[in-house]
Amino acid sequence: MLVSASVLFASPVPGARQPVDPQAAWLAYNAVDAQRVFPAGTAMPNTVLRLGDSAVEISAADELHRGFEGMLHRILRLDTDAVQASKDHDLIVIGTAKEIAAWRPSLREKKPLQPEGFRLRSVVAGKDSLLIVEGADERGALYGAFTLLRMIAEERPLTQLDDVEAPSAAVRWTNEWDNPDGSIERGYAGRSIFFDKGDVRQDMSRAREYARLLASVGINGCTINNVNADPSLLRPEKLAEIARIAAAFRPYGVKLSLSIAMNSPQAIGRLSTFDPLAPEVAAWWRAKVDEIYKAIPDFGGVIIKADSEGQPGPLQYGRTPAEAANVLARALKPHGGVVLYRGFVYNHHLDWHDPKADRARAGYDNFHTLDGQFDDNVIVQIKNGPIDFQVREPVSPLFAGLHKTNEAIELQITQEYTGQQRHLVFLVPMWKTALDTDMHVSGMRYSMVRDIVTGRTFRRPMGGFVGVANVGLDDYWLGHPLAMANLYGFGRLAWDPVLSSATISDEWTRLTFGNDADVRSVVDTLLLNSWHIYEEYTGPLGVGTLTDIIGVHYGPGIESAERNGWGQWIRADHNGIGMDRTVATGTGYIGQYPAGLAAEYETLKACPDELLLFMHHVPYTYRLHDHKTVIQYIYDTHYAGATAAAVQVPAWETLEGKVPDRTYFEVLRRLNYQAGHSLVWRDAVVNWFHRMSGIADDKGRVGNYPDRTEAEAMQLERYVPVAVTPWETASGGKAVVCHTASCSASMGFTRATGWYDIAVQYFDLREGASRFTLEVNGTAIDTWKADDTLPSQKLDGHTSTRHTSHDVALHSGDRISIIGVPDGKEPAPIDYLEITPASGSERSVRRKGPQEEIHGNKDH
Ligand code: GCU
């Protein structure tokens, strides 16, 4: 923990709204101003008349009931009897187009609705005042109901309502990387909502609530298990259990799908082969798929990760992805199911010494030649970038490389490389950058990625959006309450990729926190700036996230990218940095783009700065478009990013009492932590580049920390210095650890008497909860526990954490000590102390002892 409990859980603020259900997410249904929604002359309905009996329509009517109660304090009467309901003249009517036309033929509209689309209308007919939620089908009716509720939440007047909408694409799915044991690959919010210890959970309430959330933004499918699939989930007894998850999804129109392992026929079917072209293998898949549909009649289809990162695949038999995909596609076709075959196929044993080797090429190289060979119910699922969800990547050239194949874009909602929900990163602007990229397909005026994946550009029958969500059992589904804006945003973009980031952010903020202008302005600003801020203090100029590439992908670990087969190389040496992917002198990757886009990336002059190091290798002294050198840009952005991360804290603090307390403190805790960890990032990156390039920072900041005292330079009692690896993740490359009951590190304070903030940089390992106490002249002034569960058991960039004791009164000559008490495997490690003039923050620690002798106040 960064902030001590006493600071965090300060006395409750009068007026703060009472705790909300953290799982309600954007379906909080906060009270709204009814006058705005139903201005004078517009009747508020009393009754909801449901015309259809399907489970999905029942959910829709129930939802209207729930939303009206929460937002308008109106308890709607639920009716299914048209005659009875017609006694009331102020009605919401919900049904499919067919049902509505049968109910009142005069309401039939000529223009048919698109599948899963809806029309919302307010109609005054005689004495009747009707709000009509008309779906093209059952799902459309449900999406219409949720849209109407969103309009109410945003206090939009419902007079003369006439809104026709339809989803942009057929496939709007999330992938959940859950394992049968209940763990989640790259999940950062606790255990699986589906599985536990090898079985499907008994309690399906979270699964059902999740489906409701997904449906509320138009998501119609969910793949419940890890793409690194466990074949045992296809066993008959497991399918029976999985059918319970499908049943929980069904009332919300969310189709269940499964990730499958290509070797299943061998692993669980006892065949001697899984060669997709072996007749017995195809027969096995047919029988298996039939069996799945018996258990789950509305099964959506399968996701295949093959020949990638150790997964079995057709390559083993010299078969192509198309041959493998089609075997499954043919088994699924009679049932209406689809195959999502992942384009994420690459060799992770690349030769680092080969200047032409390039992982970014793999997707295009492996799939481009197969264009036209995939069956119509196969969709190639392509990650937005050619590498792997880095903080900045160009779009995958494969999007423009398949003209006769269905395509879906895979976006990552779980923040694997973008701060793992401990850092605030609203990803919608990043996704928009990909979706709005014009691929310059020859002969086309525009060929935006968003039009390619929805099937418009190449006139494909199918396409879509897949978001890797990885929600967990923890509160707020994704851990960080504000991270839910990403799940919301994914759904909204899948529905309509033309929506702007600002629109999506503001919708989410209003639905989650209400319509207060201050709250909207603060939250929207935080969200919309967050990606840029994160990029600034992590990986610059398209080089990649600069994290620990072969590990947990969280904190800084710059060199881990190099000298291995994984191919996320940055090719940094003493002179320069970046992957040369040009056609002229590099790996030729740029040549995979259509000529118009390739021309932009190929030359240094035209290549956008933010992708410079992705496309080119340049010296550190190379000047960007604004004439700043690459190295100075790296220094400046890292300082600017860390400063901006710190400023998020006071911005959020202005919302105390305006958002529910529980959410307020949860976000505050995370933003405080992020502010500390952004300094770890900043210092690691700038020091590493400083050492590598030998070029000084123009502004003299790098390597120069006048307020800092290294723990290893303090007077140590029982603490022992250790070297930290990678060196850049500890100040001075060293820390101190305690291998006995307690240790201390002390220093004399020689600066002017006054008020100071004392930051202690320490390492909070995954296991253990060491205790630290900050003492001044032997008197304890602050104490805290290192009880976070960061993703490493080592002293490194993942675990380096900052605790700041604010507004501490110090006399020149005082003795400052940190007492560390180890716990279990955690040796109370300390990196350094940083003492700065007090920032004037209100989060002051209790002052006592000698500090009280200081006369005057904080105006020093
Ligand atoms: C990344 C991620 C893996 C995941 C893989 C995939 O490499 O780190 O955990 O399995 O992507 O998307 O298949």
Automatic annotation (TrEMBL):
It is an enzyme of class 3 (hydrolase). Signal peptide: none annotated. It comes from the Bacteria. InterPro entries: A-glucoronidase_C_sf, GH, Glyco_hydro_67_aGlcAse, Glyco_hydro_67_aGlcAse_N, Glyco_hydro_67_C, Glyco_hydro_67_cat, Hex-like_dom2. One of its GO terms (biological process) is xylan catabolic process. Keywords: Carbohydrate metabolism, Glycosidase, Hydrolase, Polysaccharide degradation, Xylan degradation. Residues 152-477 form the Glycosyl hydrolase family 67 catalytic domain. It catalyses: Hydrolysis of (1->2)-alpha-D-(4-O-methyl)glucuronosyl links in the main chain of hardwood xylans. Residues 25-148 form the Alpha glucuronidase N-terminal domain. CDD domains: CBM6-CBM35-CBM36_like. GO terms for molecular function: alpha-glucuronidase activity; xylan alpha-1,2-glucuronosidase activity. The active site is at residues 309, 388, 416. SUPFAM superfamilies: (Trans)glycosidases, beta-N-acetylhexosaminidase-like domain. Residues 849-860 have a biased composition (Basic and acidic residues). Its EC number is 3.2.1.131. Belongs to the glycosyl hydrolase 67 family. Homodimer. PANTHER family: ALPHA-GLUCURONIDASE A. This is Xylan alpha-1,2-glucuronidase. It comes from Edaphobacter acidisoli.
